[in-house]
Predict the structure.
Amino acid sequence: MPKYILALDQGTSSSRAILFDHDGAPVAQAALEFPQIYPQPGWVSHDPEAIWSSQLDAARKVLADTRTPPGEIAAIGITNQRETTVVWDRATGRAINNAVVWQCRRTAGICEDLRARGLDAEVRARTGLLIDAYFSGTKVRWLLDNSGSGMQRRAESGELAFGTVDSWLIHKLTGGRAHVIDATNASRTMLYNLRDGRWDDHMLNELNIPAAMMPSVVDSSGVAAETDASLFGRALPIAGIAGDQQAALYGQGCFEAGSAKNTYGTGCFILQHTGDRPVFSRNGLLTTVASRIGGKQRFAVEGSVFIAGAAVQWLRDGLGIIKSAADSEALAGSVASSGGVYVVPAFAGLGAPHWDMYARGTIVGITRGTTAAHITRATLESIALQTLDVVELMERETGVRMHELRVDGGAVANDLLMQIQADVLQRPVVRSATAETTALGAAYLAGLAVGFWRDETEIAKIWRNGGTFEPRMPAQQRDALVTGWRRAVERAKGWAAGDAPAGAAS
């Protein structure tokens, strides 16, 4: 009798495998790191074989360590770094080049060409995305142009295959028999029509990407393929697939319009479910597929905070104020407020709703009485206040108020930060009891497909609350904090514009 779902969580720096039981509890896990490749400044690559071998080894390790026979695995769920792009030879199963990672900026020139052709509005209307090197479409174009002669011809003849990391893993897991991508990952390519739920011929033509190399789009929950029996001792159904942030949304039990989650990592990824209708932003939010189940797409809007946990790392590594990230809670909690100090961590510019690439980090409001504790507290406040900016934009554009914000990621262990977040949002912040929310989402999707869980109602019942933070800051104090933040952000905007080369876009 199957007892577990095996979730494969393929991330940017490591591959993990986690066993979940019927209560949605992680019973064992294994993780293996793999090398990052930086060919030149702004470029990031991965060896696709290293992605595959680390993920396979992690899966085998968690099964071996727990002595779990394959017959006890009901299904496999996969979640993955989303926009990272692989192109491989169908006959040999070997990639034609290293994977181009989601962080990589090497395709900025291709993006500039698309903008110069006046495609911004069309890309947004068709795909829900911005023209940016972040997404997979321009990465495919780069790989075809820079991986040896004849790649375009080979792609047109169907000899080459494109996929995001889910596609690559499934190709390997099935011994090359399956070439698929789920709808959530497809929606991150800049090649997928959100309304039609299929590859967009116009976008393929604009980037000269042959349709013959594209994977079949499948449901996020549904048996997409089976593993080769030689890998784990028997064939196992691959029944759940979702990009990491969509998987986290699902793992948080956010199934209905208006429900939302924030994942706190180096930055923050905030997703609000919009139900069965895509909401197209006017102010830089991304529109994405939240899940596709039974052929039915559900959607979300997504906003990113560029610098969140990275600001705490800066306190540790750059300023030496703290010895570990965990120390920030006690130091910040040693003062009742930030004493009028604001930290705007615009180290890489500002995202939504400001979208100012020339903004730079600032500290304002310093007096002779300012201490390391005030700066640390202001840094934690900046994470919460940036999240507030995105949440308010989401609510304006969707017309739906979030009744609560569910949270996950490393920083949610900081109780003070979570309390500040609830205070500035003026609504409850609910922490998941399971730290592995992303993997849990993939497990839920897989288990749903094979009857391990009956429906989303059952899943919602087993989701566990790891603590609720209710707003308690007086309204006047909260409003003063937010007003000061908005003033500080204005000081940070455009700071580096004078350093921009002549003719650069503002």
